[in-house]
Write a structure and sequence with these properties.
Distance between the termini: 15 Å
Oligomer: single chain
Radius of gyration: 21 Å
Order of helices and strands: HHH
Shape: elongated
Largest sheet: none
Length: 103
Amino acid sequence: MLGHTLSSFITPHPPLSVAMAAGGLGGIVGTPADVCNVRMQDDGRLPPAQRRNYKNVVDAIFRIVRTEGSTVLMYLPFLSALSVGSVGRVAKVDNNLNDSCPI
């Protein structure tokens, strides 16, 4: 173990899998909030008879789940895009770090 550098022990697989998991978990938390955000912003453009009049994000989440089901809040292609996007960012940062400061 003596004489080895830190970079010889780090393989690209753990950082990439952690980035994919982080992107997926971030999407699981963020996607329902984004759905509510878009619906709350769009609510003002609807005619008064069609408005949902959400009180806040929590009210919006509960009402969406109650009326339309929980699958509406989890848009799977978006979640997978977040996972792939975070892996791409980690790969880019890792590549930049290796180019600028080799160990």
